[in-house]
Amino acid sequence: MTQTAPAAFSVSPALKAVYQRDGFVHVPSIISREEASEFRAAALSATARLGAISDNAMFRQSVNVWREDSAMAKLTQHPNVAAAAEQLAGVALRLWHDQILIKPALSSKPTEFHQDQPYWPHSASTHPISAWIALVDVPVERGCMTFIPEAQGRTELPPTSLAAQQGFFDVAPDLMWSARVTVPLRAGDCTFHHGRCPHMATPNFTDEARVAHVVIFVDAATIYTGSKHVVTDPLGLEAGAVLDGEMFPRASSFTR
Ligand code: SIN
Ligand code: NI
User: Fold this and answer.
1) In sequence order, which residues have a C-beta less than 8 Å from that of residue 10 and are 6 or more positions away?
2) Other C-beta atoms within 10 Å of 26: how many?
3) Is the CB of 197 under 6 A from ligand 1?
4) Closest Cα partner for 28 from 213, 253, 192?
5) pLDDT tens for the 256 residues of the chain, in order
6) Which residues line ion ligand 2, judged by CB < 5 Å?
7) Helix (H, G, I), strand (E, B) or coil at 192
8) Overall CATH class of domain 20-247
9) How far is Cα of residue 87 from the mean position of the Cα atoms in its chain?
10) Strand order, beta sheet including 199-201
11) Could you give the C-alpha distances from 33 to 95, 136, 151, 187, 251, in angstroms and in order?
């Protein structure tokens, strides 16, 4: 008897329609609970070993861990994550960067409303998409994500501070009155959000750290603008060139 390869992860047309309408979607069990538990341990040891670019009551943030930690690279390059991202975005993607985001127990602040894309030195990227993967159960009380649906078309907005409660609504006052959707996740669940979907994360009131891993993809055709960014500053890239090279592999290379 011949063995058949396991079916590639597939997003239903209904889920894709929700993502394209709302700018975010909840995908349950992108990895198993057992995998989540193993990646939680790997994420904690990776941040302890590699250090963090931000470490405060909002979160401890370690960026591009896949470059330095072979255990976490397996999650960043997980075929389910890459397959779902490309199916939802509907275009060829490449990795921008990953990040472990740990909201500490008890002492945590919210991550205030913002869009992600205004922070990035990118142009020609209209389908940026982030996979936010829960490595522990994340009820509302532990720092889950909240989204403003149907606002990903707001591509004119500038970057705003993650720490400023009113910051985002100062630049988009009309969105203050939009309905919000809060999405608690079980370990192994994921949300995908568009880089222009406004989102925040609630504080962590629990006595357990919130451990999330975020894998960020952008259009394969993304152009590097030359603006400052922690990921690209050391690379000596040419402004105006396609964001390319071993730091930014194609999502399709994770699904083969
Ligand atoms: C968070 O998890 O605290 C924020 C994540 C994000 O802004 O994408
Ligand atoms: Ni964000």
Assistant:
1) 83, 87
2) 18
3) no
4) 192
5) 455 555 578 999 999 999 999 999 999 999 999 999 999 999 999 999 999 999 998 999 999 999 999 999 999 999 999 999 999 999 999 999 999 999 999 977 999 999 999 999 999 999 999 999 999 999 999 999 999 999 999 999 999 999 999 999 999 999 999 999 999 999 999 999 999 999 999 999 999 999 999 999 999 999 999 999 999 999 999 999 999 999 999 999 999 8
6) 116
7) strand
8) mainly beta
9) 16
10) 111-114, 199-201, 145-147, 181-183
11) 24, 9, 32, 6, 23
CA angle, corner 164, sides to 158 and 131, nearest 5?
Answer: 65
User: Please, what is the end-to-end C-alpha distance for the chain in angstroms?
Assistant: 23
- Our answer on whether the CB atom of 201 is closer than 6 Å to any ligand 1 atom is yes
Q: Which ligand is nearest to the CA of 102?
A: 1
- The sign of the dihedral angle between the CA atoms of 26, 138, 157, 94 is negative
